[in-house]
Amino acid sequence: MQPESFKPGSDQPDAATPGAAAAQGRQEHERMENYRTQIVFDLSELPEAEWDTLVAAQPGATPFLRHAFLHAMHASGSACDETGWSPRYLTLWAPRAEGGERLAAAMPLYAKSHSYGEYVFDWAWADAYAQHRLPYYPKLLSAIPFTPVQGARLLAEDEDARRCLLQCALAVAEQSQLSSLHVLFPDEHEAALMEDAGMLMRHGVQFHWTNPGYESFDAFLATLSQKKRKNIRAERRRVADAGITFRQLRGPEIDEAQWRFFNRCYRQTYREHHSTPYLNLDFFQRIGAAMPQNLLLLVAERAGQPIAASLVVYDDDPARSTLFGRYWGALEHHPCLHFETAYYQPLEFCIAQGIRTFEGGAQGEHKMARGFLPVATRSAHWLAHPSFADAVERFLVRERQGIDAYLDELNDRTPFARG
């Protein structure tokens, strides 16, 4: 399908309208005229180098925003029309002085036919629409498929382009006649822009571990309360006593057989939870070939045979320095094997490499007992139907109060030794 151009609507304030709102509207309209806006249905039609240059310039850049990662999602069939993730990448193009155009801003955007793989739950909103015989799906969603990681969503070369991109996204949502627009896990600055633009803000909680410069895993343990320290040592001892050892494989060291083994583990874990895996072997092979510098495979072995694995994604750029816990699976069950493979082994890697933050993924209070602390997350929402928008806004006010109380409670239960 060919990309289509989009022209922001004629709903800008009239130039003759008095007041500051009209002046602001004129300025936004003038800024918009500096760009050509295009919706792109196939990421492969966007130049990879320009996309990645734009990503690298963002304070909230993550490896999941890279062209190779997103393209692997689509090309592998993991996130595509057939699975309910229909790409609608929103792009702004600016003229080059020497002729031609450059990619000035871009937003990963999808038309979604369901709410799976998002980690910000709006099923109740969809049910309310259905009860009133109104369509909630398809909806517009800006997110990284199956990836609850905070980061940039408004990729832009400067602040003007960022604001224009957001206005374009809202205009696209309004003119599309779809129910809503949702932006999941934007960074703090972008969330503020979205709230200023009238989007409704929703808050959630994740658990992140931070590294102030630990010299060893034991040095980290020494900062925890005695009970937490004792429990972690006991968990690690149970794994070691079962004769389980570990190998750390950087991306270039992961060969075809290891990718196949990891995929077996990943699928087995979904099967045991009576669920369908979102990703497939082709996806893992594609990111293994395209971005090995960001991948670490932790393989658990017993009696010389691999039995479990955890795949983590990391960015050791000093400006970001973050490891993201992502995918795990096991072919054998052993007490505490999950904690060792998905948490303690990655923590040792972070300490050895000087990586400052480990984002453990969505939810999971059990992470606190392992040194992870609660962090507030954000999402932004726009609903076309005025009555539903009002109802959701009232709900979010009540939910925010509950989230704030929950965060206070969690912070009172710190795993670290006091004083």
Descriptive account of the structure:
It comes from Cupriavidus basilensis. Residues 1-29 are annotated as: Disordered. Residues 11-25 have a biased composition (Low complexity). InterPro entries: Acyl_CoA_acyltransferase, FemAB-like. This protein has 2 domains: 4-203 and 378-412, Aminopeptidase (3-Layer(aba) Sandwich); 212-355, Gcn5-related N-acetyltransferase (GNAT) (Aminopeptidase, 3-Layer(aba) Sandwich). α9 (256-272) packs across α10. It has 419 residues and is α+β, with helices and mostly antiparallel strands. β13 (305-315) and β14 (322-330) form a beta hairpin. The chain is globular. It has helices at residues 20-32, 48-56, 67-75, 123-131, 159-176, 188-196, 217-221, 226-241, 256-272, 281-290, 337-353, 386-412, and strands at residues 4-5, 36-40, 85-87, 89-95, 101-107, 110-112, 139-142, 155-156, 180-184, 200-210, 244-250, 295-302, 305-315, 322-330, 357-362, 373-383. The strands form 2 sheets. Strands 3-6-7-9-16-10-15-14-13-12-11 form an 11-stranded mixed β-sheet. It has a 5-stranded antiparallel β-sheet with strand order 1-2-4-5-8. It starts with a strand and ends in a 7-residue tail after the last helix.
What structural keywords apply?
419 residues; Aminopeptidase; eleven-stranded mixed sheet; disordered N terminus; Acyl_CoA_acyltransferase; alpha+beta; 24% strand; N-acetyltransferase
